[in-house]
Amino acid sequence: MMNRHILHTLGCIFLFLFALSSCKHGEEEYHSITDKIEAKSKNYHGVTISSEPLIEGIKTIKITEGEHTFLIPERKSQIKQYACTECHSKPLQEMQSNDGAKKAHWDIKLAHADLNTMNCISCHDGDNMDNLKSLTGNTINFNRSYKLCSQCHTNQFEDWKGGAHGKKVAGWAPPRASMTCVNCHNPHQPAFESRWPSVFNTQKVKERE
Ligand code: HEC
Ligand code: HEC
Ligand code: HEC
Ligand code: HEC
Predict the structure, then answer these.
(1) What are phi and psi of 169, to 5 degrees?
(2) Dihedral, CA atoms, 29, 31, 32, 38, nearest 10 degrees?
(3) Which three-class secondary structure state does DSSP give residue 63?
């Protein structure tokens, strides 16, 4: 009996190793895990799995960054004050008042990098408020604001491109749709407040019973 168990176990290990090495020789060859997910999704027990029904209600745009092409949610329609040029039709200096009146954007407080490094105009284009701008003054579309963030947060950007930082909008099924930086981080106050982890209260459960 013992021997049969050992044989069985060895058999399993062998099969496992074979499965591992068969990537090279088997019929099913995939360049990447993404390719595999895509291929396997086409006919999964007779149905096709797709993220499409799940992202139907969300307006998305397609982006390509390096070797990654995927969808992210569109932003402009979500920005209450867009289009900015409805008010910002002249240079900022002419609009700014020094009479102590309430600021137009009094509700926006910057708590990001310190003020030597960053002010409103580090990200917003004072000459064309409908766009963001890079550190060197190049135009960045509000729908692609991740390009703004990626200038300084290169590690998170690299992880995000590959799907390791952030979250998919609708699981792993293709086409890939990922949340963009500003879906989770407020660009004006990007850090999350620290909080205690929620605790499962066994006493409350007992009391309810
Ligand atoms: C309803 C009018 C209005 C709209 C819409 C508006 N702004 Fe403004 N904004 C102002 C005024 C007025 C000022 C001048 C600041 C003040 O009140 O002294 C200003 C100032 C600013 C400043 C400089 C802030 C400062 O303290 O100097 C930035 C940056 C800015 N706006 C960005 C935007 C962006 C980006 C949008 C669009 C998403 C936008 N604004 C939409 C009225 C507006
Ligand atoms: C780190 C870059 C950055 C800085 C600095 C910054 N902004 Fe923004 N701001 C953004 C981005 C990105 C958005 C669009 C976010 C989105 O997609 O919802 C935005 C959105 C806005 C909007 C539109 C908000 C709405 O929902 O209607 C206003 C107004 C604005 N910014 C004003 C300001 C002002 C005033 C300052 C300075 C006090 C400032 N921003 C500093 C990146 C920045
Ligand atoms: C000009 C450079 C610059 C740009 C552009 C920029 N950041 Fe930052 N960001 C910083 C710096 C500097 C800090 C402060 C880092 C620290 O305190 O360790 C910071 C802090 C943060 C933090 C908090 C980090 C923490 O330790 O909790 C987040 C999240 C963040 N940024 C996200 C963003 C997002 C999202 C964007 C794009 C909308 C963006 N940043 C654009 C420079 C930048
Ligand atoms: C699905 C939500 C989500 C998206 C999308 C997202 N982040 Fe984050 N990010 C987080 C969370 C959650 C943390 C961890 C916060 C903490 O530990 O306090 C974080 C942390 C960070 C930090 C702090 C350093 C760290 O790694 O803990 C930076 C900087 C940052 N994100 C930048 C970005 C940038 C840039 C993008 C877009 C390229 C992005 N994030 C997209 C949720 C998101």
Answers:
(1) -65, -35
(2) -60
(3) strand
Looking from the CA of residue 159, the nearest atom of ligand 4 is 38
Task: State pTM to two decimals.
Answer: 0.86
CA distances to 44, 154, 177, 183 from 121, rounded to whole Å, are 50, 21, 30, 21
- Residue 181 burial (10 A CB sphere; 0-12, 13-18, 19+): buried
Q: Which ligand is nearest to the CA of 166?
A: 4
Phi first, then psi: give them for residue 147, nearest 5 degrees.
-65, -30
Bridge partners (DSSP) of residue 47 are 44
Helix residue spans in the chain (DSSP H) = 2-25, 33-42, 52-55, 92-95, 120-123, 146-149, 154-162, 181-184, 202-208
- For residue 1, name the pLDDT band (cuts at 50, 70, 90): very low
Any atom of ligand 2 within 6 Å of the Cβ of 110: yes
